[in-house]
């Protein structure tokens, strides 16, 4: 541990971490240096989560500009070129700036606590992997200011559009490389921590599901981030060094870019949802007051999803003219991946079955997740059928599908995690009434925004268009109103739930705020001490409690 974050005996709390606002009173080493030079997994987890929320707000503003433009037919606010820049940057910022860093933040905070480790394996690399994201985020967000504006090729960065973009495309490629390097370092850290630093007695098959899902996710990240790096590097050399990987004029093939990108892109979808599965697998048993049903089958289902995710990439490409045998293979492989996903859904429902359930906010978001994620899964099955997908390709039906999976999936699971674990982080309880208001406000406004998009897509409205015919006006108006309500719900969440907890305002949290929650994280005081498990804990037979 670096001396920078070593707590002095004058620390008023006695265990080194009273909350987010007291570090200013500890003298120089405990002011800004504590955060800039942080090597403690809890501080780095906090930094990741705050960064991710800031990027969520930036991406959300871009989304609201898109929806404001689409409120009615005709061009209201932006020209089509800027509209394409908004859709592109909204996707890139949300995927690489908000969802992925947020899950890494939860991993940093919770994995050492859950497995009884003193910290992450590589503490300084942990710091480096966080701070790499700041220049990358700045490059992405400020690309609007460059000549020609931000990249406007869609978040998938398809050639040949990328070969025609201005200098912002190079800035975007550089940012993606840096974010990829950060992800790979974070993944190495998580894998080594989980495999080498578990408390004695915690075998892999006794690990919490959140640790399991992140172990598998980290392997996926290490496998596919270099593939993305390869695709965007080839784009860069096509742009500046005379190669013709994707330029048909020089014998290249734009469709090859799609193959390479989606070989990264489809596992990436599961990178953004597997940690969510882990969170829900922690929350549901706690509020159903039952053990997770079919723990081993959950582990094997998660592994199966990860393996199958590598053989389904071209279901994004049914309209590129692939042979029928190729379409059939990717269609059946995609349907197959629904099986382990369904295993998880049934396991959560079986866990709740005849449980003594209560519906505090974490459980509401977990049940909301199961509901909306299942809807997203069903529309995914529909899109998996090649003949249907050829009709629905690049329509709003696809937009509805992946927002049900990513917004309702990833984001709702994160809210569930914040309400579930934040009492342990901050030492205070959130306001239950405000939490429930946030849930219902988010759930209703989310469905008002994205459910009409299914009908728009079925009627043939293409995505990424700034204008549309009059027959699509009503559903677009409804979706735009819902989007603004959904955006304001998240501002409410930060101002009225997160900030008071960070300031230590609220009922003091007991060590075990949820009576039936199991896991080592509930064996330490609230708030969690700055240094936990300096000597490995002695575990009981289930590896969920500390004995002695």
UniProtKB/TrEMBL annotation:
Gene Ontology cellular-component annotations: plasma membrane; respiratory chain complex IV
Q: What is its EC number?
A: 7.1.1.9
> Predominant location of this chain?
membrane
Q: Which residues form a coiled coil?
A: none
GO annotation (BP), single: respiratory electron transport chain
Q: Where is this region: Disordered?
A: 1-26
Where does the record place the Cytochrome oxidase subunit I profile domain?
Answer: 35-540
**Highest taxon of source:** Bacteria
Q: Which family does it belong to?
A: Belongs to the heme-copper respiratory oxidase family.
Protein name per the record:
Cytochrome c oxidase subunit 1
Query: Where is the organism placed in the taxonomic lineage, from the top?
Result: Bacteria, Pseudomonadati, Pseudomonadota, Betaproteobacteria, Burkholderiales
The gene name reads: ctaD
């Amino acid at each position: 541990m670096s001396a920078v974050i070593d707590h002095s005996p004058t620390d008023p709390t006695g265990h080194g971490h009273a909350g987010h606002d007291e570090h200013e009173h500890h003298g120089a080493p405990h002011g800004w240096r504590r955060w800039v030079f942080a090597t403690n997994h809890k501080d780095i987890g906090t930094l990741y989560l705050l960064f991710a929320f800031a990027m969520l707000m930036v991406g959300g503003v871009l989304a609201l500009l898109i929806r404001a433009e689409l409120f009615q037919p005709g061009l209201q606010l932006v020209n089509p070129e800027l509209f394409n820049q908004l859709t592109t940057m909204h996707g890139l910022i949300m995927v690489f700036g908000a969802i992925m860093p947020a899950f890494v933040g939860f991993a940093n905070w919770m994995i050492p606590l859950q497995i009884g480790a003193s910290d992450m394996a590589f503490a300084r690399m942990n710091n480096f992997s966080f701070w790499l994201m700041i220049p990358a985020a700045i490059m992405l967000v400020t690309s609007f200011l460059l000549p020609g504006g931000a990249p406007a090729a869609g978040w998938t960065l398809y050639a040949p559009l990328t070969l025609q973009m201005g200098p912002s495309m190079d800035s975007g490629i550089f940012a993606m490389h840096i974010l990829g390097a950060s992800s790979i370092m974070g993944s190495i850290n998580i894998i080594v921590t989980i495999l080498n630093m578990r408390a004695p007695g915690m075998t892999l098959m006794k690990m919490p599901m959140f640790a399991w899902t992140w172990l598998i996710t980290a392997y996926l990240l290490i496998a596919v981030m270099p593939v993305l790096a390869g695709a965007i590097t080839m784009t860069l050399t096509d742009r500046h060094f005379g190669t013709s990987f994707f330029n048909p004029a020089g014998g290249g093939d734009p469709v090859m870019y799609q193959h390479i990108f989606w070989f990264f892109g489809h596992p990436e979808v599961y990178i953004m949802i597997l940690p969510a599965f882990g969170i829900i697998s922690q929350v549901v048993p706690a509020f159903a007051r039952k053990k997770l049903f079919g723990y081993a089958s959950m582990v094997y289902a998660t592994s199966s999803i990860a393996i199958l995710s590598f053989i389904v990439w071209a279901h994004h490409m049914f309209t590129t003219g692939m042979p029928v045998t190729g379409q059939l293979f990717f269609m059946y492989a995609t349907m197959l991946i629904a099986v382990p996903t369904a295993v998880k859904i049934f396991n959560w429902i079986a866990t709740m079955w005849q449980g003594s359930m209560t519906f505090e906010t974490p459980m509401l978001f977990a049940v909301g997740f199961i509901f909306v994620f299942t809807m997203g899964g069903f529309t995914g099955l529909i899109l998996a059928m090649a003949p249907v997908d050829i009709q629905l390709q690049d329509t709003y039906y696809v937009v509805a599908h992946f927002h049900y999976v990513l917004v309702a999936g990833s984001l709702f699971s994160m809210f569930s995690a914040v309400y579930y674990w934040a009492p342990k982080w901050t030492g205070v309880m959130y306001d239950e009434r405000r939490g429930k208001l946030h849930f219902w406000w988010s759930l209703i406004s989310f469905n008002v925004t994205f459910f009409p998009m299914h009908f728009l897509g079925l009627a043939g409205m293409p995505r990424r268009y700034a204008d549309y015919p009059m027959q699509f006006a009503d559903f677009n108006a409804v979706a735009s109103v819902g989007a603004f309500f959904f955006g304001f719900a998240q501002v409410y969440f930060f101002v009225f739930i997160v900030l008071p907890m960070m300031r230590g305002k609220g009922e003091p949290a007991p060590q075990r705020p949820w009576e039936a929650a199991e896991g080592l994280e509930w064996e330490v005081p609230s708030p969690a001490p700055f240094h936990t498990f300096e000597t490995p804990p002695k575990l009981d037979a289930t590896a969920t409690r500390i004995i002695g």
